[in-house]
Amino acid sequence: xxxEQGHRVTxxxxxxxxxxxGRERLLPVVHQLSEERGVRLLERRIRTPDDAEAxxxxxxxxxxxxGVDVEPGAAERTDFGFKCRLYRTPESCCAQxxxxxxxxxxxxxxxx
Length: 112
Known about the structure:
alpha+beta; Glutaredoxin; 16% strand; 31% helix
């Protein structure tokens, strides 16, 4: 994707299931980071189990930066499905959203 001056625009995707509490908590954080870093934010609702498989969806909410999941080690996972997602963050063993530091680091990597 090109910006006004031909620069590549970093895209942050928030994939979610309707009614996901983690998404509701995560959305303000992702919006703020998107504004701070000048990235494009796309929200994508996963509607069916087939959609979840096709999108390689690890659960709701999932955040990807330029197509890469922000959770360390997520690339090796294959447990895709139409489900909620819990994260093992540095702060919690069962968080409903990824660690903010993972989001920041993923955006920074994409922009360098």
